[in-house]
Task: structure prediction
Amino acid sequence: SITWSGQYEYMLRAQERLGQVLPLTLVIIFVLLYLTFRHAGQAFMVMASLPFALVGGFWLIFLLDYNLSVAVGVGFIALAGVAAEFGVVMLVYLDNALKERERQEPLTLKVLHEAIMEGAVMRVRPKAMTVAVIVAGLIPIFLGTGTGSEVMSRIAAPMIGGMITAPLLSLFVIPVIYLMWKRRNIQSDNN
Result:
């Protein structure tokens, strides 16, 4: 009989482990989001944005020709947490800007647009600083050599790749989804 061993066997074990850990992680993220917002719609909004935020990590893993491993999975779990945090903070800023505008004037489509622009613009500098700090902290780990560097670079790679797409998503896509969601509420109030 022939038995495949080595990297292939390791990859099968990694897929089995990640098949259990990743869904559990996503459920935990959703529960925490629901507890934060007390609204399933906003929790789903952040959760729906997570796959798009992870695209940069997948591209970098593909370009580096890394195989799926537990270390890569851990990197993606960490990236999902950071992307969820980006979405949460963006929604909090958008909600605060909208509440501030609603105190001054009745909610119309124009007021909604202005509030979303104000809330999203307020997040550009803090988001850029967060991304810069994360990337600056991960580059030495990613480029390092020596004992354990092979595993650590596979953890850092998804995070570095994701730091390209996750902030762009939260700055551009989440405000658009928020606009569509709130605009529906304005239109139902007018009817």
